[in-house]
């Protein structure tokens, strides 16, 4: 509706918002950008306008209005001209032209009632995706994503359906750009067949188990840095869940176990060719025996009574037994006791002892 001096027209008029804006664009926009878009659609339609007109609405501050305009331009909803003027893009017209261009490039006939087997499969798949994930209101760009996955990326039909399941689980299935990025990442990683997709889901399940396990073992909530580290484990080692738990247990001699300690242990095992928990247990037992031997040798080398040659392992030290003393008779022992008593007699000492000269 254009502005009018008759205030009653606001009660009787409507502003038509294309459904494609709701299904395709609104999910990507900030609330400020949506607000400005609706005001522009109501006041200007598809005619040119200036930025001063946007400011004049007063619904947003100047700074927020500038951010909203930038958001609309980035998402292709606002066009600019050389005269510093703006206009809203006719998104319905743009989608029709895009559809015609796609059909012509494929060499198809727009009103051909006969469908090939591939097209029937595609229509069944697209209809199922539309009904299941979009309540019958799927954007045309998402129909084009189905075609892109089938004919360009060569995804199996079950993989395409799983792609939209993944988008729903991540809460991005209404965000067209995010869905295209997800499809592109699957193509780069080769998730094009059910078998390859199963490997991806197995890895995803292991990731979730490791995150839950480490949170339970550390008795705290796993943060983003922890998750980044766990993702690195999966890329470098792809450890079994039980092996990761054993790597944590192997650090229990520490006061405060961190995920870096676990990663260091996994990296040590990986370098030694250890890939399962049985091999890890054998490896750790061997290390304990080696450390025990090192401690014993270190204690022996610290003996202060060893010679230089003994410390270097050249001479085996002899064990020296105490020398045997000759046996003495009881009479001799008694006589010695008497002499000792006489020497220690105080009266004897009073007289100065024995005069050795006489």
Secondary structure: elements and pairs:
Elements: H1 9-12, H2 19-25, H3 31-43, H4 51-57, H5 62-74, E1 78-80, E2 86-88, H6 91-105, H7 117-134, H8 140-152, H9 157-169, H10 176-189, H11 194-218, H12 224-236, H13 241-249, H14 259-271, H15 277-301, H16 308-311, H17 330-343, H18 346-350
Antiparallel strand pairs: 1-2
Helix pairs in contact: 3-5, 7-9, 8-10, 11-12, 11-13, 12-14, 13-14
Description:
This protein has helices at residues 9-12, 19-25, 31-43, 51-57, 62-74, 91-105, 117-134, 140-152, 157-169, 176-189, 194-218, 224-236, 241-249, 259-271, 277-301, 308-311, 330-343, 346-350, and strands at residues 78-80, 86-88. The protein is elongated, with a radius of gyration of 44 Å. Strand 1 and strand 2 (86-88) form a beta hairpin. It contains 18 helices and 2 strands. With 358 residues, the protein is an all-alpha fold. Mean pLDDT is 81; it is low at 109-115 and 338-348. The N and C termini lie far apart (150 Å). Helix 7 packs parallel to helix 9 (157-169) and helix 11 (194-218) packs across helix 12. Strands 1-2 form a two-stranded antiparallel ribbon. It folds into 3 domains: 9-91, Arc Repressor Mutant, subunit A (Orthogonal Bundle); 115-192; 198-289, no CATH class.
